[in-house]
Write a structure and sequence with these properties.
The protein is built from 12 helices and 2 strands, in the order H-H-H-H-H-H-H-E-E-H-H-H-H-H. It is mainly α. The chain is globular.
Length: 336
């Protein structure tokens, strides 16, 4: 799509206003007595519906003003990024647990992390678009990288590496600890505080730094994935941004379901491999090789199908495991 500069500006301003409204309502910086709101399942569900609703309405707008193909590309990109964000949520969950972030400050930590993620992805999108325009063969590289990423997700899942990693001890976090003393406890939402006349950093700063580093790592995976579905920078950016903007609410909504998504790694791996193969086929087609090209409609159907099967399968397995636990180790097959 040929998107004018004023549309870019209006989109970014609208996103900033939505995030600001979210901050004012939930974190209540204007109130010195109430403080940040603690998120429950009900509030998270309503906010999640709100953000998904905005993303869907925006997609219909893209379809109306830009046409059916750009609209389908946006929805395919949004679903892909939303799916990949579930993996982010698992790592965020480990970070929040590892740093023992008080529940009422978790929303603020995630807000800062999401803003950092959007900025980083913006930079990656600009760089990615420039590279693609200058060197179309980069699709071979992106495709191979995504296929390897899909393999690595399953390999780490089977080895249990994800659970063994200590995300609270990244090199950047250790570097901060090396130069500044760290308080043992949180001091509200402060990033630094003075103790005995000396400036200390708080765990709040460390967890934000850790989330920023993790966001950078995830951006390396997600941006090539969405460029495999569309090369329109506006669609790539908005699909990423809308997927990330509702990530905080999804975190609180799914925090209690993290251990029930048993097959999520398999689903994400399948999506990565599918898009990687699609990119390589596209590169071959662009270089005059007669191969089957996967259309955006097929891509959207496959991605939605994979995530539906993954989530339904995970929930069915979770229910079966719970029933098995209730039955007890001594239960007989006939139920007696």
């Amino acid at each position: 799509m040929n998107v004018p500069l004023w549309v870019w500006a209006a989109t970014i301003v609208a996103m900033i206003l939505i995030l600001t409204l979210d901050l004012l309502i939930v974190d209540r910086p204007w109130s010195k007595t109430k403080g940040p709101m603690e998120f429950g399942i009900k509030q998270a569900a309503w906010w999640a519906v709100f953000y998904i609703g905005i993303a869907v309405l925006f997609g219909f707008g893209v379809m109306y003003f830009g046409g059916g193909v750009p609209g389908a590309e946006y929805f395919a990109g949004f679903v892909t990024e939303k799916s990949l964000s579930i993996d982010n949520l698992f790592v965020f969950y480990l970070l929040m647990t590892g740093f023992a972030v008080p529940k009422k400050y978790q929303h603020e930590v995630l807000l800062v992390g999401i803003v950092i993620a959007i900025v980083m992805r913006g930079v990656f999108i600009v760089l990615g678009a420039q590279v693609i325009n200058a060197w179309s063969e980069v699709f071979y590289l992106f495709g191979a990288f995504l296929i390897y990423t899909g393999y690595k997700i399953i390999r780490d899942h089977l080895k249990g590496d994800e659970e063994e990693k200590d995300f609270t001890q990244t090199p950047v976090v250790r570097l901060v600890k090396r130069f500044w003393p760290v308080t043992n406890d949180y001091h509200g939402a402060k990033l630094t505080t003075k103790l005995d006349g000396r400036r200390h950093v708080t765990p709040m700063l460390l967890v934000i730094v850790a989330i920023g580093v993790i966001d950078l790592v995830f951006a390396v995976d997600s941006i090539p994935a969405i460029f495999g579905l569309t090369q329109d920078a506006y669609i790539v950016f908005t699909a990423n941004a809308f997927a990330l903007m509702g990530l905080r609410q999804l975190y609180f909504l799914l925090a209690g379901l993290m251990d029930r998504l048993a097959y999520i790694s398999w689903g994400l791996s399948a999506i990565m491999v599918f898009i990687g193969v699609k990119m390589i086929l596209h590169a071959l087609h662009e270089n005059g090789v007669h191969v089957i090209e996967v259309g955006i409609g097929t891509s959207l159907t496959v991605i939605l199908g994979i995530m539906t099967i993954t989530i339904v399968g995970s929930l069915l397995k979770s229910r079966a495991d719970r029933n098995k636990e209730k039955a007890g180790p001594g239960a007989r097959l006939d139920g007696s």
